């Protein structure tokens, strides 16, 4: 997974910052795998209960956050597409109008 | 006075010729916005002496009306009329709705199917429009007799204040909301609508999801 990410950076499909974050993410996952007691300790400190519950809550927060960001992005893209299509339609019509005026 | 009639069209090859023929003897400038129809709507419309704008991607009636309206304003329109492409509206009613604007009585005039004049409105459509009216009155606080009617006219000076953003059929309610919000002088006038087998075969509007979106927008603006 990390090698694939490094390859993507080489192909300029990914930024260096994202690669660093990606590597950190998998290091944290590996740490929790090797030392599961860390999550339980964290959950205890926060007052959540079990370590697994803490992981689920955090996962839900991330999913909702990224879902919301995606929704915003899609709305922006829809708005941009609308503007492009409308401007193109009007510009094409204005070209025809100018041609008709020149013919007259 | 320059009066532009904006007709958004999507897959209306069956009726567009009839609609445009009915405008031939009038002095109105016609703007047809083809919203990326899959049929021959644009080809048929191009045979008439009109301004034909074409969307390369289907955006929705609200977007098509915005395109046509903005083009009309760039051409010096004084009054803009929105007119459906499926032959439900009558050319005679355009004269009815622009009169109050010309006389200075109103900034915006809205056509209504429910102000006395009889239309051959089918029962199913009556129920749907009745429910849409209840929704508009009670939840969106829009007290209009026919909130889903597509025949309307307004002075071009108020276009900046009727700046609807919805691309789909929700633009009807959005425009009404903007009229109220911006305290524009509006009038409702009775019009007749032609319902034929063809128009009955078209998908029903309004759709429920548009209503929820408008309601959410209303709540968030409080």
Could you walk me through the main structural features you see in this protein, from its secondary elements to its overall organization?
The complex is a heterodimer of chains A (104) and B (222). Chain A has one domain (2-103). In chain A, 88% of the residues lie in helices and 0% in strands. Chain A has four helices and no strands. The termini of chain A are far apart. Chain B has a seven-stranded mixed beta sheet with strand order 3-2-1-4-6-5-7, with helices on both faces. The radius of gyration of chain B is 16 Å and the shape is globular. Chain B has eight helices and seven strands, in the order βαβαβαβαβαβαβαα. The interface between A and B is medium-sized, with 12 and 16 residues.
The poorly predicted ranges of chain B are: none
Major sheet of chain B: size, sense and barrel closure?
7 strands, mixed
Q: What Rg of chain A is obtained from the alpha carbons, in whole angstroms?
A: 25 Å
Largest sheet of chain A: none
Which structural class is indicated by helix and strand composition of chain A?
mainly alpha
Mean pLDDT score of chain B = 86
Helix content of chain A: over 70%
State the end-to-end distance of chain A.
66 Å
> What percentage of amino acids of chain A are in beta strands?
under 5%
Series of H and E elements of chain A: HHHH
What descriptive keywords fit this protein?
heterodimer, A: 104 residues, mainly alpha, 4 helices, 0% strand, elongated, B: 222 residues, alpha/beta, 8 helices, 7 strands, 16% strand
Summary?
The complex is a heterodimer of chains A (104) and B (222). With 104 residues, chain A is an all-alpha fold. Chain A is built from 4 helices and no strands.
SSE layout:
The complex is a heterodimer of chains A (104) and B (222).
Chain A: H1 2-10, H2 16-34, H3 37-46, H4 51-103
Helix pairs in contact in A: 1-2, 3-4
Chain B: E1 3-9, H1 16-22, E2 29-34, H2 41-45, E3 51-54, H3 61-74, E4 79-82, H4 91-102, E5 108-112, H5 123-138, E6 152-155, H6 171-181, E7 186-190, H7 197-200, H8 208-221
Parallel strand pairs in B: 1-2, 1-4, 2-3, 5-7
Antiparallel strand pairs in B: 4-6, 5-6
């Amino acid at each position: 997974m990390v090698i694939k990410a490094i390859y993507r950076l080489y192909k300029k499909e990914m930024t260096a910052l994202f690669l660093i974050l990606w590597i950190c993410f998998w290091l944290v996952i590996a740490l929790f795998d090797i030392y599961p007691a860390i999550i339980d300790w964290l959950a205890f400190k926060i007052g959540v209960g079990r370590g697994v519950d803490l992981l689920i809550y955090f996962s839900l927060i991330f999913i909702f956050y990224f879902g919301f960001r995606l929704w915003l992005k899609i709305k922006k893209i829809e708005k941009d597409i609308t503007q492009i299509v409308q401007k193109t339609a009007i510009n094409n019509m204005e070209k025809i109008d100018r041609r008709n005026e020149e013919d007259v | 006075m320059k009066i532009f009639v904006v007709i958004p069209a999507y897959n209306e090859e069956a009726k567009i010729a009839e609609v445009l023929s009915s405008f031939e003897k009038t002095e109105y400038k016609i703007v047809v916005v083809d919203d990326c129809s899959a049929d021959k709507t644009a080809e048929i419309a191009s045979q008439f002496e009109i301004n034909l704008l074409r969307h390369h991607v289907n955006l929705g009636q609200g977007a098509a009306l915005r395109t046509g309206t903005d083009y009309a304003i760039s051409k010096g329109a004084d009054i803009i009329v929105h007119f459906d492409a499926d032959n439900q509206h009558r050319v005679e009613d355009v004269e009815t709705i622009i009169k109050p604007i010309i006389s200075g009585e109103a900034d915006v005039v809205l056509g209504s199917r429910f102000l006395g004049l009889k239309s051959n409105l089918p029962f199913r459509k009556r129920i749907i429009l009745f429910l849409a009216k209840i929704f508009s009155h009670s939840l969106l606080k829009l007290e209009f007799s026919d909130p889903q009617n597509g025949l309307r006219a307004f002075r071009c000076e108020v276009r900046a204040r009727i700046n609807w953003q919805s691309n789909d059929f929700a633009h009807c309610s959005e425009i009404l909301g903007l009229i109220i919000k911006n305290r524009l002088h509006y009038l409702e006038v009775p019009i007749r609508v032609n319902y034929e087998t063809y128009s009955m075969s078209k998908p029903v509007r309004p759709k429920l999801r548009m209503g929820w979106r408008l309601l959410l927008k209303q709540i968030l603006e409080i």
